[in-house]
Inverse folding.
C-alpha cells in the first residue's frame, strides 16, 4: 500500500520537516488521548469517589476518597447481565432480519429488476428523510395492533426486529454495491444455469463481504444506540435495553453509584470492541464504501 | 431437460422460502402478545356482586407495578413480607409485582402504556393523572367495590384526598400517599452557617437571607435550589405562587393568573437570589432528583419538597435522616398538594377487582399494617417520623400518629415547624403538564440568564398559557 | 417487455439469467417469462416489502389521518384543521423551527467536517495510526445514555471538568448547557464526540485509496496542502463524502437522546427545543397525539421536499 499522502515524503525527510512531524504527532496523540480517554478516565475514577466528592467544586482529578463499594452497589442495583443480554439479543436479531430481508431486497432491486422496482426503491428511500420521532406515534400505534395479523408486539423483541428491517440506508448501500458487480460475472453464472438464489449465494455474497460487514455494523450500532423506541415498546423492566435501564436508574441512586454503574455498563462493549477490534475496523475500512 | 426443471423448481422454491419466512415471522409474533389481555371481559366468573366480599377460594393472579426495585432493598423486603402475610388470608391470590428502578411513573411511558392498554391490573398513578386515564378509558369505576367492609378505614380517609380520585362522583383509585409541599432544610449546613436549624425561614425574605448565609460557606454549596427543566420548574413555580396566595390559572380555568405583582415577586426573588446573592448554585436546568442528590451530599441548604423526599434520600441516596428538617412553605398562604394512588385496569373481572382492593387495603390503607407498620419500618432502618403520607382523620389518625411517635427513628421535633403550621393544600392547575412546560421557560430563563427581562417573560408565558387553556 | 424505465443495457443480464433456463425448455411466451421473472424478483423483495408496508408506509398514512383527528375518552372524531391550528399557535412553534435549523447546521458542520479533518490528520502520520483510530472509534461503543450522562457531568459549570480544563488554559468559565447561546453547540459537540468514530474510519479508508501519484502531480503544479485537499482529496473521495453527508443529515434528524438528557429537552429559554422534541412533548407529555401528528406532518412535508430534491440530484448524477 502506498504511504504517499498529502505531505510529500521529501518535505518530511528534511530535518525541519521531521521536527514538525514529531511535534505535531505528539500534540495530536496527546490531544486525542485527552479528548477520547480523558472522559473515560474521569468516569472510572469518579466511580470511586464519595458522593460529596463527585459534585465538589472544583472537581478532583485523582479521587480523594476511595469507595470501591460504589461498584458493588451499582452492580447489585443494575441488572447489567440481563440488560446487556437483552440489548445484544435485540441487536443480533435485528442484524439477522436485515441480512436476510434487506440483502434479498437489494439483490432483487439491483439484479432481478422487478416491475415497479424503481418505484419501490424510491418509496423506501423516501423513508430515509423522515425522522424516527415523527413517525413514532403512528408506528407505536401500529406495533400495538399490527394490521392484517392483528398482533400486539409490545414487550416482544419483534417490536425491535421487524421495524429494523425498514433500514433504507442499508438497502441503498447494498444495492449500490450490487450494482457495481460486473455483469460478466453474472452472465457467466447464468450461462451455467444458476438460479437467482444460487447466483446470490455463490457469486454475489462472497464478493460482497466488505459491504456486508459495513451493513452489519450499522445494523447493530443502530439498535445499540436507540433509546426512545425501546423505551416505549419495551416498557417491561425485564425486557429493557441497556440504554433504557441506565436511564431508569439515573434518578434512583446517588451520583457516585450512578457513575460506577455507567462505568460497569461501558466495560462489556469496550471489551467486545477491543477483542473484535480488527474485524470491526476491517469491516468499516476494508473499502466496502470506497468509490 | 430434467435439470432445467429442477433448477426452476429450486429458484421458485428459494423465492417462496424467502416469502414464507417473511410470513411466518409475522405469524410467529402471535406467541408473544402481551400477557395481561387474557382477562378482559370475564366479569361473569365468580360473584359479580360488587358488594359481596371476595371469596378466599377464588384463584386469581394480579399484576401490579411500582413494586420497590432492587435498589430499595428494605422496601422490597417489606413488600415480600406483606405479600406473604396477605396470602395467609387469601392464599389463592397471586401478587405479581413489577418494579422499575428510579421513578415508578414516567410521563412518556405512562402515556404509552395507557394508549397500549398495557397497564397491569393495578397501576400506579399521580392524582393529576386521572383526566388522562379517563381519556384513555383505562381505569375501572370502583365506587361499588369500595365500602366499609372492603376498606374498613374508609371513613377515616381524608375526603379531600379521595376527591382527587373521583370524577363525577365515581371513584377510580385508592390513595397510597399524599403530600403538601414544604421547605426541606439541611440541618448540618444551617448550623454551619450559624442559623437556627429548628426555625426554618417562614417568609421568602428570610429564606433569601438564610440562603445567602449558607452559600457564603463556599465550597460549591448553594443556599436554595430550584428546578427549571423537565416540567418540574413550572411545577415549583406554581408552588411558589400558591405560597404567596397567588394562582397560576384563575377560577374560571380559562385564563392565566400569574402575570401580576405576585408573579413578578416570585420571579424577581429567584432572579435576585441567583444573580445578586449568587446563593442558588451554578448548576441549573435541574429536574426532580437533582436537588435531592445535592442536599443529600450537603451541597444544598434548602429546597421546596414534600416530606416523602426524605425517605427517598435516606434509602436510595444514603443520606442521614437526622440531617433534615422541615418548615412550612415560606409565605404560608397555600401550598401545592398532591399524591399517588393505584388504579385498577378497566375490564378485569369482578373477582380480580375485589382481590386488588383487598391487597391495596392491606398494603396501603390499614393502620398498623403494610406501609403503616411503623414498628417494622423502624426495624428495617427506614425513616419513621416523617409527617407524610398522612391522609388519616379521626380515630385512625390518633392511632397512626401515636405509632409514628412511638417508633420514630428521627427527631420528630425536626418537623415540628412543619407540623405545627399546616398550610392549606391546593391542587395542581388544569392541564398541569402543558402549563408547567411554559413556566419551565420562565424558570430556566431567570436562573440561567442574568439579563432576563422579567416582564417580557411573564407576558409571553401568560399568552402561551392562555393559548393552552383555550385549546380544548 | 421489460419493466418501464429500465435502460436496455442494464436490463440485459437480468433477462439473460431468467431466460437462460427457459431457453432449454420448449419456448414460452415472453409474457410467461416476464411473469416468472417478476415473481422471483418480488419473492426476494417480499420480506422487506412487508416490513416497510407495516412499519413505515402504513404509519406515514396513519400520521396523515391522526393529524386531523382527536381522541376523547377513547372516541375518535374528525376535527379538521384544529390540530394544525393548535400547533401553529403554540408560542414555541417558530422557536422550535429556528432551533432545528440551527441544530442541523451545527450538526452538519461538526458531524460532517470534524471526522473528515480527523481522518485527514490521522492519515498523515506514519506512526500510531492504529492507536488513533482506536481512540476515535471508542466512544461509538459506549452505551449512548452513558456517554450523554458523562457529558452532563463534564459540562456542569460548578463541578464539571470542562471549566476546569479551559481554566487551565486561561479561558473564562462557560455556562455550556445553561447558556442559551452555547446550549445547542454543547449538545452538538457531545453528540459529535459520541458518533463521529464510524464516519472518521470510513473517510480514513477512502483516503488510503487515493493514489499517491495524484498528489505528486499536484505538487509538480506547485500546489500547497490546502489546494491538494481541494483538487485531489475531495474529488477523489467525492462519492463517499456525498454518501456520508446524506447519512449525517439523516442521523441529525433522528437526534433525540442528547438534548433530552442533557438539557431536559427544552433547554435554557427553550434554546434546545427542536421540532422533534416538541412532537415528543405533545405525544407523550400532553397526551395530544393529534397535535403531535399535525406537527409531524408539517415536518414530513418539508422533508419530502428535501428528499425529492435529493432524488432528483442523485438521478442527474447517475446519468
Amino acid at each position: 500500500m502506498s504511504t504517499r499522502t498529502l505531505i510529500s515524503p521529501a518535505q518530511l525527510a528534511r530535518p525541519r520537516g521531521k521536527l514538525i512531524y514529531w511535534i505535531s504527532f505528539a500534540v495530536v496523540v496527546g490531544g486525542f488521548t485527552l479528548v477520547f480517554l480523558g472522559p473515560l478516565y474521569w468516569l472510572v475514577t469518579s466511580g470511586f469517589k464519595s458522593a460529596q466528592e463527585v459534585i465538589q467544586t472544583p472537581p478532583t482529578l485523582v479521587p480523594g476518597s476511595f469507595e470501591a463499594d460504589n461498584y458493588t452497589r451499582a452492580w447489585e442495583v443494575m441488572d447489567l447481565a440481563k440488560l446487556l443480554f437483552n440489548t445484544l439479543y435485540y441487536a443480533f436479531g435485528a442484524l439477522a432480519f436485515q441480512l436476510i430481508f434487506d440483502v434479498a431486497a437489494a439483490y432483487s432491486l439491483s439484479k432481478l429488476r422487478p416491475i415497479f422496482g424503481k418505484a419501490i426503491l424510491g418509496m423506501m428511500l423516501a423513508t430515509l428523510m423522515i425522522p424516527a420521532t415523527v413517525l413514532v406515534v403512528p408506528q407505536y400505534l401500529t406495533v400495538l395492533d399490527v394490521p392484517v395479523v392483528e398482533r400486539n408486539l409490545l414487550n416482544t423483541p419483534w417490536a425491535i426486529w421487524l421495524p429494523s428491517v425498514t433500514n433504507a440506508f442499508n438497502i441503498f448501500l447494498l444495492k449500490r454495491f450490487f450494482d457495481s458487480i460486473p455483469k460478466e460475472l453474472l452472465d457467466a453464472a447464468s450461462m451455467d444455469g444458476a438460479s437467482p438464489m444460487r447466483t446470490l449465494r455463490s457469486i454475489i455474497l462472497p464478493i460482497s463481504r466488505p459491504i456486508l460487514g459495513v451493513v452489519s455494523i450499522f445494523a447493530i450500532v443502530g439498535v445499540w444506540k436507540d433509546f426512545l423506541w425501546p423505551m416505549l415498546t419495551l416498557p417491561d423492566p425485564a425486557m429493557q435495553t441497556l440504554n433504557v435501564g441506565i436511564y431508569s436508574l439515573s434518578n434512583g441512586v446517588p451520583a457516585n453509584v450512578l457513575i460506577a454503574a455507567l462505568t460497569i455498563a461501558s466495560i462489556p462493549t469496550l471489551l467486545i470492541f477491543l477483542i473484535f477490534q480488527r474485524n470491526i475496523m476491517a469491516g468499516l475500512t476494508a473499502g466496502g464504501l470506497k468509490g | 431437460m430434467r435439470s432445467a426443471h429442477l433448477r426452476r423448481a429450486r429458484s421458485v422454491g428459494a423465492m417462496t422460502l424467502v416469502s414464507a419466512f417473511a410470513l411466518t415471522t409475522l405469524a410467529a409474533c402471535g406467541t408473544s402478545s402481551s400477557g395481561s389481555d387474557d382477562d378482559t371481559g370475564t366479569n361473569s366468573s365468580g360473584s359479580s356482586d360488587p358488594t359481596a366480599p371476595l371469596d378466599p377460594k377464588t384463584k386469581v393472579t394480579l399484576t401490579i407495578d411500582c413494586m420497590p426495585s432492587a435498589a430499595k432493598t428494605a422496601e422490597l423486603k417489606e413488600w415480600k413480607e406483606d405479600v406473604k402475610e396477605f396470602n395467609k388470608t387469601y392464599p389463592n391470590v397471586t401478587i405479581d409485582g413489577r418494579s422499575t428502578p428510579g421513578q415508578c411513573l414516567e410521563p412518556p411511558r405512562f402515556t404509552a402504556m395507557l394508549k397500549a392498554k398495557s397497564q397491569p391490573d393495578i397501576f400506579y398513578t399521580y392524582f393529576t393523572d386521572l383526566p388522562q386515564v379517563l381519556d384513555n378509558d383505562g381505569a375501572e369505576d370502583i365506587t361499588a367495590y369500595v365500602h366499609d367492609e372492603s376498606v374498613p378505614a374508609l371513613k377515616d380517609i381524608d375526603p379531600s384526598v379521595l376527591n382527587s380520585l373521583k370524577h363525577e362522583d365515581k371513584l377510580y383509585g385508592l390513595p397510597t400517599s399524599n403530600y403538601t409541599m414544604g421547605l426541606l432544610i439541611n440541618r448540618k449546613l444551617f448550623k454551619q452557617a450559624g442559623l437556627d436549624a429548628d426555625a426554618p425561614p417562614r417568609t421568602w425574605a428570610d429564606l433569601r437571607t438564610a440562603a445567602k448565609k449558607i452559600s457564603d460557606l463556599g465550597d460549591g454549596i448553594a443556599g436554595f435550589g430550584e428546578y427549571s427543566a423537565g416540567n418540574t420548574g413550572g411545577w415549583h413555580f406554581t408552588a411558589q405562587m400558591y405560597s404567596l396566595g397567588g394562582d397560576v390559572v384563575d377560577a374560571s380555568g380559562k385564563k392565566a393568573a400569574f402575570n401580576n405583582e405576585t408573579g413578578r415577586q416570585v420571579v424577581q426573588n429567584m432572579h435576585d437570589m441567583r444573580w445578586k446573592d449568587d446563593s442558588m448554585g451554578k448548576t441549573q436546568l435541574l429536574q426532580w432528583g437533582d436537588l435531592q442528590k445535592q442536599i443529600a451530599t450537603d451541597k444544598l441548604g434548602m429546597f421546596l419538597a414534600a416530606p416523602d423526599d426524605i425517605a427517598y434520600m435516606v434509602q436510595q441516596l444514603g443520606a442521614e435522616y437526622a440531617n433534615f428538617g422541615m418548615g412550612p412553605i415560606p409565605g404560608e398562604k397555600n401550598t401545592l398538594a398532591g399524591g399517588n394512588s393505584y388504579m385498577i385496569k378497566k375490564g378485569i373481572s369482578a373477582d380480580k377487582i375485589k382481590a386488588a382492593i383487598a391487597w391495596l387495603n392491606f398494603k396501603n390503607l390499614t393502620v398498623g399494617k403494610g406501609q403503616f407498620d411503623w414498628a417494622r419500618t423502624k426495624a428495617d432502618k427506614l425513616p419513621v417520623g416523617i409527617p407524610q403520607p398522612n391522609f388519616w382523620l379521626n380515630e385512625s389518625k390518633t392511632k397512626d400518629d401515636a405509632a409514628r411517635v412511638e417508633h420514630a427513628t428521627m427527631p420528630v421535633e425536626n418537623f415540628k415547624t412543619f407540623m405545627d403550621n399546616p398550610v392549606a393544600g391546593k391542587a395542581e392547575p388544569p392541564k398541569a403538564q402543558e402549563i408547567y412546560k411554559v413556566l419551565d421557560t420562565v424558570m430556566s430563563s431567570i436562573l440561567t440568564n442574568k439579563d432576563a427581562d422579567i416582564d417580557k417573560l411573564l407576558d409571553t408565558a401568560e399568552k402561551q398559557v392562555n393559548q393552552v387553556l383555550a385549546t380544548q | 417487455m421489460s419493466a418501464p424505465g429500465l435502460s436496455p443495457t442494464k436490463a440485459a443480464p437480468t433477462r439473460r439469467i431468467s431466460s437462460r433456463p427457459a431457453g432449454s425448455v420448449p419456448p414460452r411466451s415472453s409474457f410467461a417469462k416476464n411473469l416468472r421473472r417478476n415473481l422471483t424478483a418480488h419473492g426476494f423483495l417480499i420480506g422487506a416489502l412487508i416490513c416497510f408496508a407495516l412499519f413505515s408506509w402504513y404509519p406515514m398514512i396513519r400520521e396523515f389521518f391522526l393529524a386531523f383527528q382527536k381522541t376523547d375518552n377513547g372516541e375518535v372524531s374528525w376535527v379538521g384543521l384544529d390540530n394544525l391550528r393548535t400547533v401553529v399557535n403554540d408560542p414555541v412553534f417558530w422557536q422550535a423551527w429556528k432551533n432545528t435549523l440551527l441544530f442541523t447546521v451545527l450538526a452538519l458542520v461538526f458531524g460532517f467536517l470534524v471526522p473528515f479533518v480527523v481522518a485527514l490528520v490521522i492519515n498523515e502520520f506514519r506512526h500510531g495510526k492504529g492507536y488513533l483510530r482506536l481512540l476515535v472509534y471508542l466512544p461509538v461503543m459506549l452505551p449512548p445514555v452513558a456517554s450523554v450522562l458523562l457529558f452532563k457531568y463534564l459540562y456542569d459549570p460548578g463541578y464539571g471538568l470542562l471549566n476546569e480544563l479551559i481554566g487551565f488554559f486561561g479561558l473564562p468559565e462557560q455556562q455550556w448547557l445553561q447558556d442559551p447561546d452555547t446550549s445547542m453547540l454543547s449538545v452538538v459537540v457531545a453528540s459529535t464526540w459520541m458518533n463521529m468514530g464510524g464516519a472518521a474510519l470510513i473517510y480514513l479508508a477512502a483516503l488510503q485509496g487515493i493514489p499517491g501519484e495524484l498528489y505528486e502531480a499536484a505538487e509538480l503544479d506547485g500546489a500547497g496542502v490546502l489546494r491538494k485537499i481541494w483538487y485531489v482529496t475531495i474529488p477523489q473521495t467525492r462519492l463517499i463524502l456525498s454518501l456520508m453527508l446524506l447519512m449525517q443529515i439523516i442521523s441529525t434528524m433522528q437526534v433525540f437522546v442528547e438534548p433530552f438528557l442533557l438539557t431536559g429537552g427544552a433547554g435554557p429559554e427553550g434554546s434546545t427545543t427542536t421540532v422533534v422534541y416538541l412532537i415528543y412533548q405533545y405525544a407523550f407529555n400532553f397526551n395530544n397525539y393529534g397535535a403531535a401528528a399535525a406537527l409531524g406532518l408539517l415536518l414530513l412535508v418539508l422533508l419530502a421536499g428535501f428528499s425529492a430534491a435529493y432524488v432528483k440530484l442523485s438521478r442527474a448524477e447517475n446519468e
